[in-house]
Amino acid sequence: MGQLNVFSATGVISVPEAQRPLPVTSGANYFGEWGNVPPDADVQPFSMKNPVREGGDRTNRKHHFVSITYMDGFTDETGRVQVYRSEDPQNPHATQPRATGYQKQYYSQPLPEGGIEHHRFEDLFNTIETVWPETVRALEARRLSQAISFNVQGMQTIMRVRVPAARDRTALMLEAKLRSECKALEEIGALPPEFARYSGQSGTVPIGINPHETLHAMKQQFKEFGDLCFRLGFEVLYNRTGIPFLTSDNPVCIYDPRLSPVDRRPYDYSGEVELLFPVTSRMIVRGSSKRGPANVISRQGDITDRRIVRRMNETIAQFAYRMTIARDRSCDEIIQRHAALVPTIRTEVRQVGKEIQKHVREIFGPRPNLSQYIDTPEKAVRLEEKMAAQAAAGKHEPT
């Protein structure tokens, strides 16, 4: 990761094509000892589901990054949710969960022997999605068990690491890494000849990141989120007000609860930590570094104060990325207030003496506009022509 891949005719910088499809094993040992969770009377732990499926010729390419069965918990009496796009939050549209929260070939990846594989990630996540309805029903009945906690942690995990907010963050990190490498090479006079024309432009030239690299970054993100859960104790809170909980395409909210929404930074793990994860429009999981035991749901409670629900919805809307999802339109103002800013990172490449440093800060800021990944000479030529036209007009391609 981080190696430069260059079309000799153009010199456009890209990350090389990934050739490492998701490794798959079979049988009940797929999840190892971590998945050795006993079932209870009504809920089967997702680790008992086999994620290896036959039928590699399946034709489905519409990959959901927000689970359909998860969104079912936020539907109205007609089976629809209100979807607020971040670029147009004043005009939500009612739609069925199946028709939103997806992207074509979102999990597709190249195979070493050639061709494209479309389903391994989908099948893995499906183990968690399959047991989600029975898990939700058990929570609604105010039941707790090891299997229930395990399944909730599984849904939280995939809704933290597979969403566009997480994958775009990885792409921005890789972009910053490549910029710092190019700047360092330029400083010591070792910039490859094909990059000579970009001398002095390491902060502005478009760098497209191979989307498959962001898929493979999920492995480390799974581990990091799992480590965080072992710092938190969890409780389920039941919404007894008339205001439904919101959710979004980035529903796992992590922050320092001591700070006001204006001052907080997303995913701040450095001190006291609070986590919010809406389960349905009437249930939410809250995790806290001040509560034990860790990594398990051990408490339940009711919320009867509408102000508390609104504060939680403020946080959920603040962490939304491309879209906020609601049962009804009772929180229009909250959603619109937070639509302009999303959880992202600010990267900066600095030269300190002879050292090139990469600085990363978690922020709420404008949603990033990622550069196109260039994977064919034809695309590279078109991009070079566009850059040349913009340079002649005195403009710069956004990065």
What's this model, at a glance?
The chain has 399 residues and is α+β, with helices and mostly antiparallel strands. The chain contains 9 helices and 15 strands.
Give an overview of the whole structure.
The protein is 30% helix and 19% strand. By secondary structure, it is of the alpha+beta class. The radius of gyration is 22 Å and the shape is globular. The two termini are 20 Å apart. The chain has helices at residues 68-71, 120-140, 146-161, 164-187, 211-216, 218-229, 306-319, 332-338, 377-392; strands at residues 62-64, 81-85, 93-95, 102-104, 109-110, 116-117, 233-239, 247-248, 253-255, 274-280, 283-288, 297-303, 323-326, 342-352, 355-365. The model is unreliable at 1-29 (pLDDT under 50). The strands form 5 sheets. Strands 9-10-11-7-12 form a 5-stranded mixed β-sheet, with helices on both faces. It has a 4-stranded antiparallel β-sheet with strand order 3-2-13-8, with helices on one face. A two-stranded antiparallel sheet has the order 1-4. The chain is built from 9 helices and 15 strands.
Ends distance: 20 Å
Shape: globular
Separate helix tally = 9
Please give the order of strands in the largest beta sheet.
9-10-11-7-12
Would you count the extended β strands for me? 15
Strand content: 15-25%
**Overall mean confidence score, pLDDT:** 84
- Low-pLDDT runs of 5+ residues are 1-29
Q: Structural class from helices and strands? A: alpha+beta
Key features of this structure:
399 residues, alpha+beta, five-stranded mixed beta sheet, 9 helices, 15 strands, 30% helix, disordered N terminus
